[in-house]
Amino acid sequence: MIIRTSVSHGFLILSYSVVQICCSVVTLLPENRFWVEHEWSFLNFTWPTLGKYIAAIGSGAYVPENIVPTGLKVYNDSIYLSMPRFRSGVPVTLAYIPMDTSLKQNELLIPFPSWEMNDERFCANLQSVQSMEIDTKGIMWVLDGVRINDYYKCPPKLVLFDLNYNGLFVNSYTFSNEVCLQNGGFLKDIVIDESEGGYAYITDNSNIDPGLIVYSRTKNRAWKLRDRTMFPELWAANFMVKNQRIESLVPIDGIALSPKPTDETENRTVFYTSLTGFDLFAISSSVLKDEEFCRKDRWRSYVKFVGKSTDRQTE
Ligand SMILES: *[C@@H]1O[C@H](CO)[C@@H](O)[C@H](O)[C@H]1NC(C)=O
Ligand SMILES: *[C@@H]1O[C@H](CO)[C@@H](O)[C@H](O)[C@H]1NC(C)=O
Ligand SMILES: *[C@@H]1O[C@H](CO)[C@@H](O)[C@H](O)[C@H]1NC(C)=O
């Protein structure tokens, strides 16, 4: 029943395929109990005018049943949600709701940082956001990189907003086709390493060119690592969920960063895994940060096999 989940600070977003409820935000309480905070039968927004809402329904610019939230992040008193444009009729790809509010049913989402920035007609604006991360300084790093269908004409990018100034635009970095395909790229998940001016480690879930992308904020450059540990595992595919055969082969997807070390000289570890797969791998951030080293082949000897997960079949 659950088709997508995303976890942040003990919050969980669930997107269902059942008819009555589209999705909910659930809090994890101690002792692994769940508490439903918000629930939607469809996602709707704080339209600027009733006329714009009616026009969007009429033109097909807003098709509520086509909107699926995939990313969730919590910062101070707001819950941020991303909704990739997997289909037509998604007027907003990034939005938020205030955390403490009495209305928990079908709460209207507020476009973030603005309606204008969610206007897909211009490449400088957000096109299709799968997920985002917020660093300790309140900078939100947004992955605008779902390029797996024909709804976008714009190259994938990483956009930074400052939450300390109402989501003020900070920087936008457009990925070259060599790093992420404009036609077939799929920037899926991101972790932030705040050392040395800030690095982002990003999974490109593209089934044409999967890999791990590194972005340096100081250099304003990005590079990509490709390895067979980032491919789907054939023997992990082909299983049954509720009488439905799942045969898709999904490459590198999940990514995590080891906690910030107390000793600044200590390197952090980046973990990654393919969605279709049982194996978890790790690599030191010191390897990823070295662009020159990543352009050769020796970095592959630093990939470590961490272990196998055995219950992935039921995901
Ligand atoms: C969607 O939100 C707008 C306000 O932004 C409201 O006028 C409209 O009635 C809502 N639609 C539904 C079906 O609740
Ligand atoms: C978030 O909360 C912290 C601690 O209360 C505060 O220092 C900071 O200014 C807040 N940031 C924003 C963007 O509201
Ligand atoms: C971190 O990585 C660098 C570069 O590989 C290495 O020189 C250094 O010794 C590492 N630090 C620690 C504490 O292992």
UniProtKB/TrEMBL annotation:
It is found in: Secreted. Signal peptide: none annotated. This is Uncharacterized protein. The keyword rRNA processing does not apply. Keywords: Secreted, Signal. InterPro entries: 6-blade_b-propeller_TolB-like, MRJP/yellow-related. Belongs to the major royal jelly protein family. GO terms for cellular component: extracellular region. It comes from Aromia moschata. It comes from the Eukaryota.
